[in-house]
Design a protein that fits this description.
The structure holds two protein chains of two kinds.
Chain A: E1 7-9, H1 15-26, H2 28-38, H3 43-57, H4 65-80, H5 84-99, E2 104-106, H6 107-124, H7 135-150, H8 155-172, H9 196-217
Antiparallel strand pairs in A: 1-2
Helix pairs in contact in A: 1-3, 1-9, 2-3, 2-9, 3-4, 4-5, 5-6, 6-7, 7-8, 7-9, 8-9
Chain B: H1 11-22, E1 27-30, E2 33-39, E3 49-56, E4 73-79, H2 85-95, E5 101-106, H3 109-124, E6 129-134, H4 154-167, H5 172-184, E7 186-194, E8 212-215, E9 226-229, H6 233-248, E10 255-262, H7 268-284, E11 288-295, E12 304-312, H8 315-322
Parallel strand pairs in B: 3-4, 3-5, 5-6, 10-11
Antiparallel strand pairs in B: 1-2, 2-4, 7-8, 7-12, 8-9, 10-12
Helix pairs in contact in B: 2-3, 4-5, 6-7
Classes of the chains: A mainly alpha, B alpha/beta.
Chain lengths: 218, 330
């Protein structure tokens, strides 16, 4: 089956975000532990609070993926705050805008969605690749996915390459010196710890890819 | 350390509720957002609104500076965490008297983003928003990269002066220019002797070894520029004054306002001990102290330590600093 053939019904795809939320909530302690080493240790608590609340409010049965993302975005922006509230809030809001109620999602639409999410993060934040932030995961993931499609990979293959790029991007933060946010005050002392935002971003992208992969293959 | 806590998750809501009840003559809660504290009389029609906000745990900052001729509305965040864009937006709406709103806040990544989003939301409703970002902490970045410096206790002078300027009927542009001048004229430094603990985390998020002090520490325990043996109060005062004045290069005869704030757990009498020596040093440098402020003005939970802020004054800043105000924190 070619890349253009595989499709996912948008209606009912909201439960993919449930799975994303479950992964974030399950990693609450791990994310806070990472953040505690070089930040103030609240990343896991705040992420789990926001994604957990989103799960309670997303209508699993009939919702579209973009409506679920909008619910999540609203919660992040109006109830979570900090740095991750606006960053992930913008990411999911712009991802939702890119889907905009389409009946079906295909490989190209997913690509437009994650590209829009990346641009949303870049519009609100000022970090660049190499600054030890979630962009170190998100940028290579989006670029690799786009390249994979351009090279003729099908959707599952492109998702799989995106996941690998996200993991490599997350791991690249281990040896970086933080340039943004509270951990940047540590300078050299921030080296040797994974960035919590890059880690949560990898969890989100992986869970999205897995959720979609299960639905289009199975 | 023993603390007065019910459920750590409720501490911010309980703080805000208690604050509003205690100071009901001067402040109220926004009817639509329990994380926005509004001056009793705000919005004042035709007056530029003054908004600030930040994480909790710094009391009396930020809420304590809400009131007549200072801050009109404050967005309240979780402990040490930026308020939401929605709360900043609701604060802007609450402060808007039709003449625009000045958001005067500190340079932190989360606050920068949330204020930016709130300003966009407000613009869509036809409210003109302009900002001043405080960056008075000299140890957080070199002078050549002042835009990277954090905002600390100099924000109090920025709010006081911006608020007084707005109360005098100035335009949004004038309020912004004056508040900007106030913070540009401020330099601050912090020294930490003991860490603080976020109740939900349960353990200190950094460490200061017994017998040492961290010079240049930030308002959330951000690391300072050096760790040194703690000797006498006078030695610490000398060090702090030297750091601030070295960054300032003020001509002799300049009038200054001096603010010494405790970080939460340092007894106020020790702050006066510091001030006594600091005033000596500042005067010895040829500066004239117009006014001193000593107390817990901008804290960091139960951190042990103090900050020093020196603001250079001109005739207008002096008049605005001295203009009457009525806020719980001053």
């Amino acid at each position: 089956m070619g890349a253009g053939m595989t499709r996912l019904k948008n209606a009912g795809a909201a439960d993919i975000l449930w799975e994303v939320a479950d992964v974030i909530v399950a990693n609450k302690a791990y994310l806070s532990e990472l953040d505690g080493k070089i930040g103030d240790g609240d990343h896991g608590f705040n992420m789990a609070k926001g994604f957990g609340r989103a799960k309670e409010r997303i209508d699993e049965a009939s919702g579209t993926l973009d409506s679920a993302m909008r619910t999540l975005s609203d919660i992040l922006m109006s109830e979570i705050g900090g740095s991750m509230g606006p960053l992930y809030g913008m990411m999911f809001s712009d991802m939702a805008d890119a889907l905009d109620g389409a009946a079906e999602i295909d490989a190209a639409a997913f690509g437009r969605m994650i590209r829009a999410g990346l641009e949303g993060v870049q519009a609100i934040g000022s970090a660049r690749v190499g600054d030890k932030t979630l962009l170190d995961t998100l940028v290579p993931a989006v670029e690799t996915y786009e390249a994979a499609l351009a090279e003729g990979n099908d959707w599952p293959q492109a998702l799989s390459r995106m996941k690998a790029a996200a993991e490599a991007g997350r791991d690249s933060t281990l040896d970086m010196v933080a340039k943004m946010g509270r951990s940047s005050r540590l300078g050299e002392r921030s080296r040797g710890v994974l960035d919590a935002g890059a880690t949560s971003c990898c969890l989100i992208l992986t869970a999205l890819a897995d959720g979609i992969g299960r639905r289009i293959v199975g | 350390m023993q603390r007065f806590i019910n459920n750590p998750d409720d501490i911010v809501d309980e703080t805000v509720r208690g604050f509003v009840r205690a100071h009901a003559g001067r402040v109220r809660l926004d009817p639509g957002n329990a994380r926005v504290v509004v001056a009793r009389e705000a919005p004042v029609k035709g007056k530029v609104g003054i908004v600030t906000g930040g994480g909790s745990g710094h009391e009396p900052a930020f809420i304590g500076y809400t009131g007549r001729a200072m801050v009109d509305a404050v967005a309240v965040g979780e402990l040490f965490s930026s308020p939401t864009a929605k709360s900043f937006h609701d604060a802007i709406r609450a402060a808007d008297g039709g003449a625009g709103v000045a958001v005067l806040y500190g340079n932190y990544a989360g606050d920068n983003m949330n204020v930016k989003m709130a300003a966009r939301m407000a613009a869509r409703q036809g409210i003109t928003v302009a900002t001043v970002v405080a960056n008075d902490d000299v140890c957080s970045a070199p002078l050549t990269e002042r835009e990277k410096r954090r905002g600390v206790a100099g924000e109090i002078f920025m709010w006081k002066i911006g608020g007084a300027k707005a109360a005098a009927g100035a335009s949004l542009d004038e309020v912004i220019a004056t508040a900007q001048r106030a913070i540009d004229n401020c330099r601050s430094v912090g020294v930490g002797l003991g860490p603080c603990t976020l109740p939900a985390a349960g353990k200190p998020n950094f460490e200061i070894r017994a017998g040492t002090m961290e010079v240049g520490i930030g308002h959330h325990g951000e690391p300072g520029t050096r760790v040194e043996p703690l000797t006498s109060a006078n030695a610490v005062a000398d060090d702090m004054v030297a750091l601030v004045l070295a960054d300032h290069a003020l001509p002799g005869g300049t009038e200054v306002a001096v603010l010494v704030s405790g970080l939460g757990a340092t007894p106020v009498n020790e702050l006066y001990v510091l001030y006594d020596r600091m005033a000596d040093r500042i005067e010895a440098a040829g500066l004239k102290i117009h006014r001193g402020f000593v107390g817990n003005y901008f804290t960091s939970l139960e951190m042990v330590g103090a900050t020093l802020t020196v603001m250079a004054l001109d005739a207008e800043l002096k008049a605005l600093l001295d203009a009457p105000t009525d806020v719980p924190g001053l």
